[in-house]
Write a structure and sequence with these properties.
This protein is an alpha+beta fold. It contains five helices and five strands; from the N terminus they run αββαβββααα. A hairpin with a 3-residue loop joins strand 4 and strand 5.
């Protein structure tokens, strides 16, 4: 059994919203084969409690546009690990220190990763891509 198309659509919307709020290490795991209660675990992290809450707000705002509200919400007041339960998808947004400590990816390492179809938004990656052709031209000039 694999995650449903609706679960994948939900998690991709959550991933885009999290990415827009600069979430780190975004991943989604298809846990449908090992858990009967949900299809996908979505995990993202942030370096501060304030950013954790901003990411959670962004995800909730995006999913409300589709008429989705969490069935359950945990950890909002602490801002270290917020869980949003959308039944088909469970969203975990963690402070990066808590993410390292609890290592959810390690616990669910046998589960397949869901393709979130996120575009690279790291400006440094774009700079490296545009810098490479000129570097290659300089190297060929130096070789001649």
């Amino acid at each position: 059994m694999t995650a449903t198309d609706s679960s994948v659509a939900i998690v991709r919307a959550a991933a885009r919203a999290a990415s827009d709020k600069l979430a780190l290490d975004i991943i989604a795991l298809d846990v449908s084969d090992v858990l009967a209660i949900t299809d996908i675990f979505f995990i993202a992290s942030a370096p501060s409690e304030r950013q954790v809450n901003a990411i959670v707000d962004g995800i909730e705002e995006e999913l409300i546009k589709s008429g989705l509200r969490p069935v359950r919400r945990e950890g909002r007041s602490g801002g270290r690990w917020v869980l949003l339960d959308y039944a088909e998808v469970v969203v975990h947004v963690q402070h990066e220190e808590d993410r390292i400590f609890y290592a959810l990816e390690r616990l669910w390492k046998d589960c397949p990763v869901v393709d979130l179809q996120l575009e690279a938004k790291d400006p440094s990656a774009k700079q490296e891509t545009t810098a490479q052709p000129s570097d290659a031209a300089q190297q060929s000039d130096t070789a001649n």
